[in-house]
């Protein structure tokens, strides 16, 4: 099929596109790659980790309940002196005199250890934040980090789709190269047979025989190289799909170059979404850092038992509850300098956004120009292939009639092989260029149904 390029000055007109019926196998392989590729699986683990980190951040809003128990024994150390005897003994003596009895005993002054001895305390300790901007912004940051992981996954998926397509086209290119060399080998072997017969009948000299023998060896060597190249291309393609490296690859037949209109759409590239997400994260980091100046309010409550000698009765039960307020008044301007660092990060990210926009636009322009060049090359190689085919037919007739020498025939046949190889290379180079343009423009639909 000949591709005629028209209106190359039109930036948006690209002579390449997909035919669903002609690309069915490739579409199937892309779906396999997006499902089974190991790097995608690893990035999925990272997303799951981010989701768990988000749930962890959400759990900070809920009460925290812990069972706390301790038992202490003590001896020595500081004491509290209680002069109970000095205070009550005079009173008791007076009462004994009045009642003419010894009902009221004399008491000794007491000295009580500050550290409790043989004492237990078991309680449910509950705490809950009531007002804490830090955990509010932390939750927002974790949400955005999860979204960032998802965007990074999409970036890799787009890169993987491009790699799968290029690997597939290179494999098809190598398979067609093998076919071309096999056809060439059958032709040079036939030439070898004919020349040996002519030499045997003394119709030609030995030079033509030697030259035909060398051509057979040269084509055989090129064929072996093409087969090895094809094996390597197949192994790499299967590697991308996480399949056995020697798995057979289904080939799409009749791949052509129809026209397709592609408009510049780099503003929707995931790389820009990444930077915008990072910018939003930076904004929340700024707000979280600034929230250090705001008060933090939390509540707590204890419900439990405490007593000496492991006693347990109504008097052992207790509850204890309250509020806790923390307000950072001064920290040596530490928070101020943290804010300045975050602000510098914000300026850096804004600069990166502008730079990346230009880079993506440049990538699109270069990919588009490469595609146009590849299509022009394919058109030229296709014409040369047809011309070489006609020329070879004419020289073959002349050689059979004895009007052309073998060198002329050999040259004509080599032109056929070389132009076929060049056309094959430029055909799939056009598809490769399209895959790169599709990647530069984020055109492929990652959400298509499996």
UniProtKB/TrEMBL annotation:
Residues 339-388 form a coiled coil. Keywords: Cell outer membrane, Coiled coil, Membrane, Transmembrane, Transmembrane beta strand, Transport. Signal peptide: none annotated. Its main location: membrane. InterPro entries: OMP_efflux, TolC-like. The keyword Transport applies. Pfam families: OEP. It is found in: Cell outer membrane. Belongs to the outer membrane factor (OMF) (TC 1.B.17) family. This is Outer membrane protein TolC.
């Amino acid at each position: 099929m000949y591709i005629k390029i028209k209106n190359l000055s039109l930036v948006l007109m690209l002579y390449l596109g997909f035919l669903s019926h002609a690309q069915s196998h490739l579409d199937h392989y892309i779906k396999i790659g997006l499902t089974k590729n190991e790097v995608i699986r690893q990035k999925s683990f990272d997303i799951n980790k981010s989701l768990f980190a988000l749930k962890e951040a959400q759990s900070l809003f809920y009460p925290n309940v812990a069972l706390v128990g301790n038992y202490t024994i003590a001896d020595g150390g500081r004491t509290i002196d209680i002069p109970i005897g000095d205070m009550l003994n005079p009173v008791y003596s007076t009462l004994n005199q009045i009642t003419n009895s010894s009902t009221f005993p004399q008491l000794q002054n007491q000295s009580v250890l500050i550290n409790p001895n043989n004492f237990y305390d078991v309680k449910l300790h509950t705490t809950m934040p009531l007002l804490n901007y830090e955990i509010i912004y932390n939750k927002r940051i974790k949400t955005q980090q999860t979204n960032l992981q998802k965007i990074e996954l999409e970036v890799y998926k787009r890169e993987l789709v491009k790699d799968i397509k290029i690997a597939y086209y290179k494999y098809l290119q190598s398979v067609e190269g093998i076919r071309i060399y096999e056809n060439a080998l059958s032709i040079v072997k036939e030439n070898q047979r004919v020349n040996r017969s002519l030499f045997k009948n003394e119709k030609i000299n030995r030079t033509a025989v030697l030259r035909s023998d060398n051509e057979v060896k040269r084509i055989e060597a090129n064929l072996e190289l093409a087969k090895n190249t094809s094996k390597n291309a197949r192994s790499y393609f299967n590697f991308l799909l996480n399949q056995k490296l020697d798995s057979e690859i289904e080939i799409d037949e009749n791949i052509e170059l129809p026209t397709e209109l592609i408009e510049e759409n780099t503003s929707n590239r995931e790389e820009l979404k990444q930077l915008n997400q990072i910018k939003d994260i930076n904004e929340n980091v700024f707000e979280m850092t600034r929230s250090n100046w705001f008060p933090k309010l939390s509540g707590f409550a204890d419900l439990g038992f405490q007593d000496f000698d492991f006693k347990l009765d109504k008097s052992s039960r207790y509850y204890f509850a309250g509020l806790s307020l923390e307000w950072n008044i001064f920290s040596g301007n530490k928070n101020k300098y943290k804010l300045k660092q975050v602000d510098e990060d914000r300026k850096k990210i804004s600069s990166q956004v502008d730079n990346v926009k230009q880079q993506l636009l440049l990538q699109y322009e270069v990919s588009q120009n490469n595609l146009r060049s590849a299509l022009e090359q394919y058109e030229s190689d296709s014409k040369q292939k047809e011309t070489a085919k006609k020329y070879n037919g004419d020289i073959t007739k002349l050689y059979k009639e004895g009007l052309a020498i073998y060198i002329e025939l050999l040259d004509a046949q080599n032109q056929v092989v070389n132009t076929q190889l060049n056309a094959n290379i430029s055909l799939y180079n056009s598809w490769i260029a399209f895959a790169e343009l599709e990647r530069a423009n984020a055109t492929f639909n990652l959400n298509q149904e499996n």
